[in-house]
Amino acid sequence: MSERLADNIVEIIRSEHLGHGDALASSRDLARRFGVTTPTVREALRRLEATGVVEFRHGSGTYVGPGIGRRLMANPHLPRSTRASVLELVEARLVLEPAVAAAAANVRMAEAVRELESAAANALHPPEESLRRAVHFHVALAAASGNTLLREAVEALLQVRAHDQVEIRHRYNDRARDHAEHLEILDAVRDGDAAAAERLTRTHLVAIREAVLAADFPADEPEDGSGADSDGEGGGNDRDSPATSALPATPTTSATIQEGAQQ
Q1: Which pLDDT band holds residue 134 (cuts at 50, 70, 90)?
Q2: Highest averaged pLDDT of the listed ranges 43-47, 96-100, 151-155
Q3: Cα separations (Å) of 2 from 34, 42, 57, 73, 164?
Q4: CB 185 within 8 A of CB 113
Q5: Would you say 135 and 260 are in contact if contact means Cβ atoms under 8 Å apart?
Q6: Which one, 51, 113, 137, 202, has the greatest CB density within 10 A?
Q7: Exposed (0-12), middle (13-18) or buried (19+): which is 138, by Cβ within 10 Å?
Q8: Of 121, 111, 94, 114, which Cα lies nearest the Cα of 198?
Q9: C-alpha angle 13/18/23, rounded to 5°?
Q10: What is the pLDDT of residue 104?
Q11: C-alpha span between 248 and 263 (Å, rounded)
């Protein structure tokens, strides 16, 4: 019952063209609409909250969440990030994002460019705080290309490897430099300079790769049940080992992971 009701609530969101941050009807109103009890509606809403489709705001109500348009969901139980897993994410971004930046400069979707301007400041905020900001700069960059699939591809990449993305931000931790590089990319996009946008994005990601290579990571250990995992927009959230205790803990709730790679 709750699964079918959750599908019906999603259909309401889509049919009424609601977007992230828009308010939903109250649980009582939804219960009357579907002829079910209020606890049944709340159970369905909790299912949707777990995937980021809705979010609860204490004392305010239920709102459409950032996960309403996502096609992939991150696994909240991924093992600890390692240097190899973080580098894998950086290398994948290096393949994809410079070309995406060039496309954004060529197209420059007006609304998406305005969102990109707003997202550029996210680099100034600490990694965990940035997870709760509306749009990741590089997702906004892909959106400016006007290609929905490119935006979804970048968002999915950062979302499913959200742990590794936060580790990137811990290692590439010069907030002023990160922000300045985002502003340079933004200027190139606004100017319609595809070559500069591609070059600056590549330079930005190469600098991130160098920072990751130079950073200290806990030694990889086999998964034998004795402690650290061997695999892994903030690495494994178990930061009890001395090698990682200096880094702030990253929540591992599914809601946080769904907010994942926003920066």
Answers
A1: low
A2: 96-100
A3: 11, 9, 21, 20, 33
A4: no
A5: no
A6: 137
A7: buried
A8: 94
A9: 90
A10: 96
A11: 17
**Which of 75-79, 97-101, 160-164 ranks highest by mean pLDDT?**
97-101
In DSSP notation, 179-199 reads HHHHHHHHHHHHTT-HHHHHH
Q: Are 97 and 201 in contact (CB under 8 A)?
A: yes
Question: What element of type H or E holds 97?
Answer: helix 83-107
pTM, whole model, 2 decimals?
Answer: 0.63
- What residues form DSSP beta bridges with 63? 23, 55
Q: Return contacts of 88-91, CB within 8 angstroms, 24+ apart.
A: 88/164, 89/157, 89/161, 89/164, 89/165, 89/168, 90/168, 90/205, 90/208, 90/209, 90/212, 91/209
Whether the per-residue pLDDT at 254 is higher than 50: the answer is no
pLDDT at 162 over 60: yes
Helix, strand, coil % in the chain, rounded to nearest 5? 60, 5, 40
Question: C-alpha distances in angstroms, 62 versus 15, 45, 58, 80?
Answer: 17, 9, 9, 32
List the single range of 124-133, 188-197, 254-263 with lowest mean pLDDT: 254-263
Rg (CA), the chain: 20
